[in-house]
Amino acid sequence: MMTEGNYKYIGKSVPRHDAIEKATGKIKYVGDMKVNGMLYARLVLSHVAHGKIKSIDISKAKDLPGVVDIFTYDNSPKILYNAHKWMSGMDEVLDQYLFTDKVRFYGDRVAAVVATNDKIAKMAADLIEVEYEVLPAIIDPETSLIEDSIKIHERGNIAFSKTMGYGDVDKVFDKASYIFEDKIITPKQHHAAMETHVALAIPSGDMITIYTPCQVVFQVQLIVSEALNIPLSKVRVIKAPMGGSFGGKGQPIIEPVCAFLAKETGRPVRLTLDRTQSIIGTRTRHKTIGTVKTAVDKKGKILGRDLDIVIDSGAYHTNASAIAMAMGKKFFRMYKMDNVRYSATSVYTNTPVGGACRGYGSPQLHAITELNLDNVARGINMDPVEFRLKNLVHPFDKDPMGGPDLGNGQIIECVKRGAEAFGWKEKWKRPKDSGRYRKGVGMACGTHGNGYYGAYPDFITMDIKMNSNGEVILNSAIHDMGCGTVTIMQQIVAEVLDLELSKITVLEGDTLSSPYDSAGTQASRVTYVCGGAAKKISEILKDKFAKYSSKILNCYEEDIVMEGGYIYNKNKPDKKVGYGDMVSNIYHQYSMDMSASYTYSSPANPGVYAANFVEVEVDTYTGLVNVLDIVAVHDIGRAINRDFVYGQVQGGIHLGLGMAISENIELDENGRISTLNFSNYHVINAPSMPDVRIILIEEEDEFGPFGAKSVGEISAVAIAPATLNAINNAIGTNISQYPATPERIVEALVKTKK
Amino acid sequence: MQMMKIETPNNLDELINCLKNADSSSCLLGGGTDLIININNKKLYPNTIIDLSGVNELKEIKKNGSSISIGAGVTLTEVCENSFVKEKFPALAQATSQVGSTQIRNRATIAGNIGNSSPCADTVVPLMALNAKLKMLNGNGEYYHIPVDKAIKGSGKKNLKPNEAIIEIVIPYLKDTCSSAFYKIGSRKAVTISKLNGAVVVDINLNNTIVNAKVFLGSLGPKAFRSIMAEKVLMNKKPNKELLSEFQNILMKQVDEAIPGRGSQLYKRHAIKGMCEELFIRLFGESCIRGEI
C-alpha cells in the first residue's frame, strides 16, 4: 500500500503512452489525416502592416482548375469574436473577424482558398490580388502609448491598463538611500512547435466535427460556435495528437476558419499553415518594455519596487488584459517587500498578435525584474545570491495582495542547493578574464502558478469506470501536449487503485463525450488540478469498490485490501479475487456498475519556484555566447514522472535560452517581418544546446496530487535573465534588451570601451 | 498550369544534347538545396530542369598531375571528408564542412554553390584563394576552363550561359611550403549563414617568413573579393601576435571600405578580428599568437 515517498507508480520514469507510435512514425497527426472527399485550404495573409482593403481580385485564382471556392470579408460572417475567451460568460474585448477588411499587421487574415489539393490551393492563394489603401503603422509599443492620430481599432490604442500594489511606494523612493532603475525590453518570440497550425473540419448534416491539436476543446467549440453563430451542440471538437504547442495553439486561431470553410463547401476541409504563416499569422510571446525601480537599504533589504510595463498586444486584443494581470500577480509572490507598485499598459500595435506562450508573462516579468536585481546587487557590492536569499519569500508566506497562499514554496532551498551544485561562490569570486573569451556567471529566480484558482473558475469533471476485465477507463477533457499528461493520469490512477498502467485507459478531450472542463491545458493546471481530480475520482471509485466488495466478501470495509489487481479481506489473504471478477460479482448481486463521476474544483493555487544558474563564455570579438553550464533547481512538490519533469525543464530552458540570446521576430519600421523562417529566426539548435543539470526539491504540496506542483511553464521563466546576467557579468556590460544577439553584445562592448 | 520538363542525362554526351537545347529558363539541378527552395518560393520557375545526378562522370574526385578535380556532382560531405582534400586544401575542407547542416551537405555540391552565386557562399572564398578553375562544357560539346571569379556576377546572379555547365572544379596543387585556411562567422556555432567568411593561402619559407599570401573575403558585398591590402600586410612578415594585430586592423579597414554606412558595418568590423585570429590559428598554430614563435 501507499506510504509517503514509497510509491509503486508515482515518481517512476515510465515511457509516455504513445512513445512507440511516435518513434515509429505510425501516429496520425492532423497533417497525416485524410478523409474521403477532403479539400485543402490555404490562407492569404496581409503583406502590409496597416491598411484598408480597396479590392480583392480573385478572378485568376478562381479560374485555376481544382479551386473549389474562395472566401474573403465579402462572403463570410461579420461577427466579432475574441479567440482568447475559453469559457462562456467571460467578458472580453471582441475585435476580430474571420476575415478582415482592414488589415492591422503583416500577417492579418485576408482570404482563404479551398481546392482539391494543397498545391493548387497554394497556387491560387498566390494569384489573389489584394489592393490596399496603406495606412501609417505603429510598430513601437511606446509610440502607441502617445500616438492617437493612428487608430488601429476604433476603441483607441490602449487595450488595457491596470495599476495595483500596496504600501507607500512614492514615500519609500523619496527616502531610500539606494535606488536602481532599469529599462528592459523583451522580444516577440515564436513558439516554434515542430508541427505548424493545422485543423481538419468534417461537416455531416448540420454538425461539424473538428480534429485539432488544441489545448482546450471546449474553447474551440465555444469560439467556433460564436464566430459562426451556430449552436454549441452542432460543433464537436476532438483533440488530435499534438506536435507541440507551447501556448501557440492555445487560442483557436484557425479552427473557426476551417469550420467555416467546411460548412460552406459542405465537404471536409483541412487547413494547414506553413512555417512562415505560423511565425507571422498566429500568436507570439508578447513583447514588453519594463521600467523597474528597486529601493534597497545598505544591508541589501529591498524596501520597495515599482514596475511600469508596456505590453505589446499586437494587432488584436486576445489576452492583453489577462497577460497583464498574470504578470502582475507573480510580481508580488517572489520577494518580501513592504511597498510595491505594478502598472501595466497593454497597447495595440501593427505587429503580430500576442497570446499565450509558455510562462504566460512570467518569463517577461522575470526577464525584467531579475536583470534589475543583479544591477542592485552590483550597485551595493553584494553577491547576487546573498542578496536574493535576504529577500526571498519563505514557505507558507501569504500573498500580500490577498491572492491564494504561496504554500510550501521552496525558493530559498532552490537557491541554496543550486548555488552549491553550481559552485557559485568560487565562480562568482573568480578573477575576471581579460582575453578574447570571457567567462561569466549569472543566476535568477522565478515563480509561476498552479492553475486558475483565485482568478477564474478552475474545475474539471471526470468519469471513471472499472469493467469486468478489471480494466479502468478515465474519461475527461484532458489534452496531452506531448508532455505526457495521459501517462501522468495513468500513474495517478494506478497508484490509487494499485493497478498496472496497461490496464488503465485515459481518454483525451472530445466535446461530445468528455465531461466539462473549465479551462483546458492552460495556466500550468493540468497535473495540479486535473491530476488532483484523477486522484480524487480514483479514491471515490476505490471506496465504492471496497464498499460493495466488503458485502460480497462478508467483511468490514476497513479490512478490504486492493493490491496489484486483486481484492481481498486482509484476514483471508489466500482468497484473492481479481478486480474484474469482483466487478462481475457486483453486477450480479447488486445490479451496480463500478463507475463514478465527480466535479473537482481546485482548492488552492500555490506558487511554484525555480532558480537557474548559468555559466557562459562570451567571444568578445564575434559576440557569440557559448553556454557552458546550467543548473536548474525546481520546487516541484513531487515528481509524478521524473523523466517527464526532466524533459519539461530541458525544454523550458531551451525556449528561454532562445529568448536570451537569439530569438526575435524582427520587424522593420513599416512592420514588415524579416524572420520568416528558421533560416534566420534562430532557435537554439543541438550544437549550441548545453546539458542541463537538474535538481528537484520534493517538498510535498498540501493539495496537489501526491504533493505534486507544476513544472511546464516555470521551467521557461528564470533562464533568460540568468543567462543575460551571466553575459553582463562576463563582459562588464549592462545589456538590457533581449535577446543578447552577437550584434548587441559587440555594440555594448564597443560602447563600454569608449 | 505551366509544364516543367525534367531532363535526366546519363552521361556527358547526353548532357551536351540537353545543353544544346537549353535556354534562359533552363536550370541545372545539382543537389537542389537552393534550386528547390527557390522554386518553392516562386523565385524561379524553370521550364526545363537538367538533372545532373545521373551523370556518373561528374561524381569523382580525381588527382591529376598538377591539380585535383572535383566533379560537379560530388557532394560537400564527400569533399570535406576526402583525406587528400583535407591534407592539401584545408581551406576547402573547412569551408565545405561548415555549409548548412549535415543533410544539406549530403546533397549540395560546390558547382551548385558557385552557380547559386550567393554573396556569402562559403566554398567560393577558398576556391578563389586557391586559384581554382572551372572546367566547363557547353552545348557544342566544347570543354574549356574559366576562373571561379568569372562565373559569378554577384548578389545571387551567375555569369554563365544557359548552354554551359560547370562539370569540374580544378584546383592546382600548392607548393609544399604553402598552407591554407578558411573561417566563417554566423549567428551560431553550426547550421548558419555566414555574416563573414574568409580564406587565406600563404607560402612560408624556411625562415618562417610569409613570402606569398592570398586573402579573399566573402559576405562583404555582392561577391567575394580579394583583399590586396591585407595580402600586403602579411607579405615578408613572420606570423606572430603583432602581425595578427596588423592583419586585424587592415581587415577592419577593409570592412569599412567594403560596406561603408551599412547597418552591419559596426558588427562586422569588430567580429572580423575574431575571424583573423581563427585564420592565424588554423594557418600557423595556436602558439604563434601567444608570442612563442
Automatic annotation (TrEMBL), chain A:
Q: What is this protein called?
A: Aerobic-type carbon monoxide dehydrogenase, large subunit CoxL/CutL-like protein
List the keywords (alphabetical).
Answer: Molybdenum, Oxidoreductase
Q: Which cofactor does the UniProt annotation name? A: Mo-molybdopterin cytosine dinucleotide
Q: List, in alphabetical order, the Gene Ontology terms for molecular function in this entry.
A: iron ion binding; oxidoreductase activity
An example Pfam family from this entry, by short name, is Ald_Xan_dh_C
**Domain of life of the organism encoding this protein:** Bacteria
Q: What range(s) does the Aldehyde oxidase/xanthine dehydrogenase a/b hammerhead domain occupy?
A: 24-136
Please tell me whether the keyword Nucleus is annotated for this protein.
Answer: no
Q: Which organism is it from?
A: [Clostridium] ultunense Esp
From TrEMBL, chain B:
List, alphabetically, the SMART domains matched. CO_deh_flav_C
Please state what the protein is called.
FAD-binding PCMH-type domain-containing protein
The record's annotation in PANTHER family points to: XANTHINE DEHYDROGENASE SUBUNIT C-RELATED
Q: What organism, scientifically named, is this protein from? A: [Clostridium] ultunense Esp
GO MF terms here are: FAD binding; oxidoreductase activity
Q: Locate the FAD-binding PCMH-type domain: which residues?
A: 1-176
- What Pfam families does its record include? CO_deh_flav_C, FAD_binding_5
Oxidoreductase listed as a keyword: yes
Q: Which UniProt keywords apply?
A: FAD, Flavoprotein, Oxidoreductase
